[in-house]
Each structure stands twice: as structure tokens, then as C-alpha cells.
Amino acid sequence: MSDPTPKDPRLEQAGATDESLLAAHEKLLGRKPDDGAHYKMLPLVLLFVFSGLIFYAGTYLNRYSVRYDATVFDENGHSTKGVAAVAKADPMVLGKKNFEAVCITCHQATGLGVAGVYPPLAGSEWVNGSEERVIRIVLYGLKGPVTVKGATYGAVAMPVFGKVTGSGYNWNDERIAAVLTYVRASFGNKAPAVTAEQVAAIHAKEGDRKEWSEEELLKIK
Amino acid sequence: MTTVPPAAETAEVTEIDSSARCSLLLLLTCAALWLVLSGVLAVVNLVQLTTPTFLADCPIFTYGRSSALQQSIFVYGWAANSGLAVALWILARLGGEPLRSLNWLKAGTVFWNIALVVGLVGIASGDGTSNAWLHLPRYVLPVMVVAYGVIAMPGVLAWTGRRSPMTFAAQWYAVAALFLFPWLFSAAQMMLVFAPERGVLQALVAGWFVQGAWTLWLAPLALAPAYYLVPKITGRIIPSYDFASLSFWTLLFVGAWTGGRHLIGGPVPAWIATIAVVSCALLLFHYIVVGVNLRAAFSANGSTVLRFVAFGLGAYVLGGFIDAATAMRSVAVVTQFTHFSTAQSQLALNGAFSMVVFGAIYFLGPRITGRAWPSLGLIRAHYAAAVIGVTGLVLALFGAGWVQGHDLNDATVSFATMAAHTRPWLLAATAAQAVLLFGNLLLAAHLFWIGLAKSAPATGLFQSAPTMEASVS
Predict the structure, then answer these.
(1) d(CA B435, CA A218)
(2) B462 interaction partners in chain A (CB closer than 8 Å)
(3) Rounded CA gap, B220 and B176, in Å?
(4) Within a domain: residue A3?
(5) Domain with A204 in it: what CATH number?
(6) Do A10 and B379 touch (CB under 8 A)?
């Protein structure tokens, strides 16, 4: 071990004082951007690089984030958020929700309707009968007198629920199927469930049309 | 353009350095001891990968425990002690006042290291957790948070009580590291150890913590000395310094978001991996600016310190680009969950962090002790061993990971075949790790040598430094 000389690499002399190091860099930051419009290449390139990275990041995020869906593990998959998620819901739950929001006003929570005005759903031959008829009633409505469990009703028309011109509800096929499934399994009814496909098939077959009458419906088996 | 000012005002070494001697040497000595111990365990672990029977009958040295010990010792023993020592010294130098509350600093150091010892005994006896970088048992974690705060306090005081209101990039990074680690550490403790999250969220928090501890704690602790040493030694202004702050904030905002990169290809929602891919790409800006700012380190011939710093910076920037590349899903299919990821973390820890901090230690050693390093040969040998060790280790693990990744994607390859394919690479990695350990032993010995020798006022050793001119070069 020898006595170090000032140039000894074991000491590593400093090239600048701490104070001047601070002051010099602080002065740089206070400088006006691009003195005298001498555009330098490097800062411009860095800005372009940064913008480019942000652009890439935004595009990639938009393409592969799958709407931040917590249930999708494949970046090329599809989000199940929104409409599709409703389709997956239990039709009995969805049906009950819709029944209690709308149908209950006339047909009552008991499904018994109001004597002479609103026909009952409980034990109704229309509800428990052919899907062909009951789907058509909810999709397109029913106008004119109708006989249910031996009594005639005709004072009020059944509204149009499907996605049909003039409909006040515009329910999609899944929703109609769910309500029908619920009604056909409640109030003592024990008819089989109605699927969205069945509703869609009838919807496609009948297209856009007016309310049914009892006569027209009875022709359909 | 440089001019030499009167010597009295601008002495290179002042009371700032001599007063901090004991406290900083305490931190650095602990750090060096832990570094050697972690190196020994790293060699043991790598040997076990090729020879599973090695020390397999001793519960402490079973792979699960000894690799947990090695990781904890490296991060909380070596990196924390050395990184804090360097950061505190830089904050004091740039603050222009001697460090305050030095007795607290010593007490904090003692408590931190005792808690670590207790924690390591806990891991060895089976109390460890299964979280990467957070294997330490629950009973030492709160003590460590408090001890960290006590150690960091002199740094915060040096920052708030700095002589001039001016600030420099080295200070930003040092202060950020002081403040961000307690947040990361305590949040991770709560969510992983004390009130553990369940399911996917747990893996997510673990990834966030490991990545955050790197990008928001260890990386800033390495960047602080890098930003200080390069202009300090070359005497030249940092080019494109305007971008340094943008780069700093990019790291702070985006850094922890890259946590999901550890889970790409794993059972997590796709958007988490997507955010990580995007964040890794955005972080490239930070790496590019660091490279542009500190490029003078690569052309500074004759400076031993800057050679260490240059290697560390090279590893840091290269690591950033490799992180971004392996975050791409098509690459991650091969590299993820293999030795390749290990290679990346070794490049960051042993390559970037350790090398820059070694440089800083060699710079501050003579200044705080008032003596030149006893042997230039030891420093050069350490440099050579570190360069060979890190390069060999990282390349060998990259090779092992690449082979392993391709084998894993082929269902017809059996586990035994896979082990046979990676064996030569892992043997090379073991040798490289042994070289690295040898180099680190040299550092520890050198540090004891200079620390135990009688100290003297360093004023005669150092010339007054020239003044840096604020002209744009």
C-alpha cells in the first residue's frame, strides 16, 4: 500500500463541485425551450419516440383489454358484459323481475287477474296450452274478446311486447321467453319452459304484424 | 470551460463526509456481509438444480427454504443496506449539510438487521411465507417497516433541510426510493400476510409488490448514484437533461403497473396482462432517456468508478428492453415461468443495481474514511469477477430458460429430458455465480480493510474540484 498521489485511481477525483453541479443543471431546467429556434434533433426524436410509444400503448390496450372483463382470460376472446350477460341469467329470475315490473299491474301478483277485466294466468288454458299461441300473444298482443276458464274478457287489450312496430316495450326474444317460462311455472302452472329460440322462430315467421284476435289464434295449433 | 475556485469554499471532502463515517460504514459492512452470504446460498441453490441430492437431507438447505433465504438476504440485507447508505450520502452531499439524527440512523440499522436475522431464522425453521420477495415471517415485518423509517429519516431531513432550493435528478430518485418503499412494503404485508387476499388477487398483489420493489425502490436507489456520479466525475453537464424529469415521472407512474408481466400467460383476466404489456412498452421511454442522459459513463476512460456504473447502466437499459420484449405475448409463451425470468431478475439485481452501487461505494469509501482504497488490484479484480460473473450467469440462465421454455411447450418432452437439456446451461450458471461470489468476497474484504484502518481527515487527498459551467455542450 503506497501513499496516494492526487491522480491515484483509488481516490477518483471529482470533476465538478456539488454546488456547481446543482447550479448548472438547475440553470438548464430554467432555460427557455429551444433558444433561438435551433431545433435540435435529439429532443425532437425523443418526443416522437414518446408519442409513438403512447400511440402503440393506446392501440394495444384498446385491442386486447376485452373491455376489462374479469371473466375473460383470452386476450382475443369476447366480453360477456352487457346483452350477452343477460342471456346467461336464470330465466326464472329474469322472468320474475320482468313480470313484477310490468305484467303484475293487470294480472296481479297472484296471477288471478281481475274478474271481468283482466283474465287470470293461473290455470289458464292459454298459458298452459300450446307455446305457439302464448308466444304470439306476448309478442304481438291480443285485441277483442277472449274466453279464459269459461269467462269472457274484452274490455282491455293485451299490449304488444315484442320488437314490433308500434310496440311500447320492445322486449327482446330472451326476455319474452323468460317471462313466459316464469308464468308457465308459477301460480300453480306446470307447463314446460319456453326458449328464446322458440320465440325467435315465431318472430321470424310472423315478421311485423298487428295484434291477434282470439279467432286467428284458435286456428293455430 | 472550467475554472478553479478558492480551495476553502469548495473542498471536495468536508464534515458532511467525515461525520457520516461510522453510520455509513455500519450500513455498508452489514450490506457486504449479507451480499457474501446471499452469494453462498445462490451457489448452493444452483448446485441443487443440477444435483438435487446436494444438502437435501438438511431441512434448512432444502431448495424452498434456501432460495427464500437467498432472496430475502439479497433484497433486505445487501440491497436495502447498501442502497440506503449510498442514497443518504448523496442526499447529504447535494443538500450541503451533514446528516442529522445519526444515532437514530445507527439504531435503525441495528434493528433492521436484527429483525432480518430473526426473520431468516424464521424462514430456516419453516415459518416463511410463500410470497416472492416477502418470505420473511409475519412477526418481523412491522419492526422492519419502522426500522426502515428510522434509517430513511436522515435522508428526508437532508432533503427538507437542503441548503439551496435547487434540486437535481439524483435527489429525486433518492427521495422517491425513501418514500415509496414503506408504502409498497406495508401494503404488500397487509394484502399478503396479515389479511391475505384470496384467489387471483393474491397473485396479482404479489406480482405488483415484486415489480414495484424493483421499479419504485431498487431502481431509483441505483439511479440516484448513477445520476450523481456521471456528471460529478466527468465534470460535464448531463445531455438532454430536460427529459430527466419526464423520465423520472414515467418511471413513477408506470413502474408498478408493469407488475402484471409476471402473470402473462397465467390464470388472470386478459386485461391485467394487457396493461402490463403496455406499461412495459411505455417504460421504454424511461430507459431510453436514462441511456441518453448518462451516456458519458460509457466513454469515460480511466475512471474505475464509472466502469462499474457504465456496466450497471448498460444492464439497466438492456434489462428494460428485454422486459418489454418478453412481455410481448408471443415471446412470453416461451420465456414465461422459466429460468428466463430468473435471468431477467439477475440482470436487474446483480447487473444493474449491484454494479452501480459498487461504483458508488468505491467513490464514497475514500471520502468518508479519509483514506485511499488499500489496493487498486482488489478493485480491478472485483470488477473483472463481477463482469464475468454477471455476464456468464445471465447468459447461461437465458439459455437455460429458452431451452426449457421450448421443451415445456412440447407435451411429448418428458421432465427428465428437459432437465438433461438445461443441465449444461445451469452448470455454466453455477460457475458464473461462484465467480460473482469470489468478486463480492473481495469487496467485503476491501471494505473491512479500509473501515478498520485508522481514519484521517481526507482534506489532503482530494483536489478542489473545478466548477461546472452551465453552457450547453
Answers:
(1) 93
(2) 6, 11, 13-14
(3) 7
(4) no
(5) 1.10.760.10
(6) yes
- For the domain made up of B15-453, give the CATH fold: Cytochrome C Oxidase; Chain A (1.20.210)
Contact in structure between B23 and B369 (CB atoms under 8 Å)? no
Cα B449 to its chain centre, rounded Å, is 24
Task: Extract the C-alpha cell encoding B174.
Answer: 433518492
Q: Over the stretch B131-184, which tens digit does the pLDDT of each residue have?
A: 999 999 999 999 999 999 999 999 999 999 999 888 999 999 999 999 999 999
Using CB atoms, pick whichever of A18, A53, A56 lies closest to residue B93. Answer: A18
Of B168, B234, B235, the CB nearest to A22: B168
In terms of domains, do A102 and A171 share one?
yes
Interface with A, mutate which of B90, B274, B295 (most A CBs under 10 A): B274
The pTM assigned to this predicted structure is 0.80
User: What is the count of structural domains for chain A?
Assistant: 2
The answer to whether the Cβ–Cβ distance between A50 and B270 falls below 8 Å is: no
Residue A12: which of B289, B305, B464 has the nearest Cβ? Answer: B305
Q: Which domain holds residue A70?
A: 39-81
Question: Scanning every residue of chain B, which has its alpha carbon at the shortest distance from the alpha carbon of A57?
Answer: B278
CA dist., res. B65 & res. B57, Å (int): 13
For residue B139, CA distances in Å to A185, B101, B151, B382 come to 58, 27, 20, 37
Q: Where are the alpha helices (DSSP H) in chain A?
A: 18-30, 41-64, 83-88, 91-98, 104-107, 125-128, 131-140, 173-184, 196-206, 214-219
